[in-house]
Amino acid sequence: LLIPHTRYTLHINFLARKRLISKDGLFTQFSASGGEGMLTILRRSLSSMTYSSLCMPEDIAERGLKDVPNFYYRDDGLRLWDIINRFVRGVLSYYYKNDLEVQQDSELQKWVLDIFEHGFLSHPCPGIPQKLTTVDSLIKFVTMVIFTGSAQHAAVNSGQFDYDGWMPNTPVSLQLPPPTIKGKATEETMLKTLPDVNTTVQIMATLWVLTQQSSDFVSMQKSVYFMLSNVLYFQI
């Protein structure tokens, strides 16, 4: 069920640790935070993470965004969450007939605990499960994993170069402090403040690579067909 959505995950994460966030990685060399600042940001992010923030329906509700007009991220995202959730429910309900079967599946429980220990570093993030006790909780967890690796990742990753390719939109660093008084900035001060050409080129090239689809990219629709064919094969 998860294979189509975790393809290349280990590979790309290894490359990210080696080339982006390592001691001599691109973010360490060129971002304003530097390596130590980046670790501080990551620690703060992990400390504020909750299980509900990874589950879109709950996240939207908790942030008070249910009734915001023309919010296409929410509208499209909730539709995709529902589609994935219904598909996952159909597959897992076939293999797990009741809650006891979930509780007695030792490999499943070890999988969830491994994610808690190594994915969330055993941090007591509110709601992050260390074990699964019901079919519904399993369906929700797997839906979250698939949604995060597909729709959510595409939403926050795939448009990076489209927006950040125009460097003034999101300069990765500044050579001078940003202006604090309106009307004082000039073209000359802006050019002195924005990052130099080398920094800009390095970050733009990185963003371009990060937003490229793999040569054998498979859309979610085809992934569903792939999963269905496997389910039918094993049933037969």
UniProtKB/TrEMBL annotation:
Keywords attached to this entry: Dioxygenase, Metal-binding, Oxidoreductase
The organism of origin for this protein: Goodea atripinnis
Limits of the Lipoxygenase domain: 1-236
Family as reported in the entry's similarity comment: Belongs to the lipoxygenase family.
Superkingdom, taxonomy of origin: Eukaryota
PROSITE patterns found in the cross-reference section: LIPOXYGENASE_3
InterPro entries: LipOase (IPR000907), LipOase_C (IPR013819), LipOase_C_sf (IPR036226), LipOase_mml (IPR001885)
Bilayer-spanning residue ranges: none
Database matches in SUPFAM superfamilies: Lipoxigenase
Stated name of the protein: Lipoxygenase domain-containing protein
